[in-house]
Specification:
Number of strands: 0
Helix content: over 70%
Number of helices: 16
Radius of gyration: 21 Å
Strand content: under 5%
Order of helices and strands: HHHHHHHHHHHHHHHH
Length: 391
């Protein structure tokens, strides 16, 4: 595994930490910016929308550059967004800062995954994707609690200054650790040339499946705190430790999926979705039993967002390994987060705290259905062609 892949993962970690910072500092930011809690929540929504909508356009712009120059450009934009957030005098300025960082983060993700695939040998590309994704998993495990701790101790602005410091460490490390590479074929073709690949039905199905996998997971993950305290009977003080355990499960699951993603891409998604549907169903049925709720929550952690290496591998085989494809794929993943969290909230209002778990199970089943055409195709390719009998 090239060492440069680990350097790229550190850049992802910095950006994920910035993404999660607002969620842990909502009361402090509301007081500091003279805003309400719902308005601070809109900063999270704006970041996600900027990633999904603006990220692809930024990707097209930077792919005209060589890979290292593209990464440095994205680091510079990301750093500017975080510094603006750290000194933001008002809510509108903070909103602009979050939009800037969201656009840069999404483009960075697409360029980074493409580089990891180019630098790794064909037989370990799935593992390379898993290493890069570990930046996301470790960000989930450590980024939120660290930014929250810094913000609570030194003020919410300090959390964004800390992300700025992380960026100033990650950028030179990337410049030193990533080899000089030329642009990949087709990277500078412009928007029309790079979007031609999206006419593929296989690629569209792969993107939709990724949305359903992430939607199933986030319909539950978004509401773990009230589910664990309101149904499972855990104390409020124990929730951070439970979320750390969940994060550790995602790191372990990501490692396993990365090992299997190259050779068993579709099978990993089939079994992962089936297990996720089972875990979410069990969670919904036994959420009132503390021990069972803990087991099922960890199960969701093992087979939820950890499907990322297999998802990326499938998308690349259906389309290509270019930065725009990876960025659009990340936009579909972000769409899954939005669908899962928003629909889960509506389900709670209508049917109670168990509802997002049932919703997640239903989305996982839909994901299995979306996999059927690819499963049939894989079986058809595996069947030997019968020899013709001479007349």
């Amino acid at each position: 595994m090239p060492r440069s892949v680990y350097v790229l993962a550190f850049g992802i970690f910095a950006m994920v930490t910035s993404e999660f910072a607002v969620a842990g500092l909502m009361p402090q930011m509301a007081r500091g910016l003279g805003a309400t809690i719902p308005q601070i929540g809109y900063l999270i929504t704006a970041f996600a929308v900027a990633m999904a909508v603006g990220g692809p356009f930024m990707t097209v712009a930077v792919t005209r550059l060589r890979p290292r120059a593209a990464l440095m450009t994205l680091f510079a934009v990301f750093l500017a967004g975080n510094l603006l957030a750290a000194v933001a005098p008002s809510y509108p300025v903070m909103m602009a800062a979050r939009i800037i960082t969201g656009v840069a983060s999404q483009a960075f993700f697409g360029v980074t995954v493409s580089l990891a695939v180019r630098m790794a040998r064909p037989e370990v590309r799935g593992r390379a994707i898993a290493v890069v994704m570990n930046g996301l998993m470790v960000g989930t495990l450590l980024g939120l609690p660290l930014s929250t701790m810094i913000g609570e101790r030194f003020g919410w602005r300090a959390a964004f200054w800390a992300v700025g410091v992380l960026t100033l460490v990650a950028a030179p490390a990337t410049l030193a650790g990533v080899p000089r590479l030329e642009r990949a074929e087709g990277d500078g073709d412009g928007l029309r040339g790079q979007t031609a690949v999206f006419r593929s039905r296989r690629l569209l199905l792969a993107l939709i499946t990724s949305t359903l996998i992430i939607g199933a997971t986030f319909s539950a993950f978004s509401y773990l705190n009230p589910i664990l305290t309101g149904l499972a009977g855990f104390s409020t003080g124990s929730v951070p430790y439970l979320l750390v355990a969940y994060g550790a499960a995602t790191v372990a699951g990501n490692h396993v999926v990365g090992r299997l993603a190259d050779r068993h891409t579709i099978a990993v998604q089939v079994y992962g979705l089936a297990l996720n549907a089972a875990f979410l169903t069990g969670f919904a049925l036994l959420a009132h039993v503390s021990a069972a709720a803990l087991v099922f929550m960890l199960g969701v952690g093992l087979v939820g967002v950890t499907m990322n290496p297999a998802m990326v591998t499938r998308v690349q085989r259906a389309g290509n390994a270019g930065p725009l494809v990876n960025t659009i794929h990340s936009s579909f993943i972000t769409l899954g987060v939005v669908i899962g969290s928003s629909a889960g909230g509506l389900a709670i209002d209508a049917y109670g705290l168990r509802a997002p778990l049932w919703l997640g199970a239903a989305l996982a089943v839909l994901g299995l259905l979306a996999l059927l055409p690819e499963r049939r195709r894989a079986r058809g390719l595996a069947e030997p062609v019968p020899a013709r009998t001479p007349a």
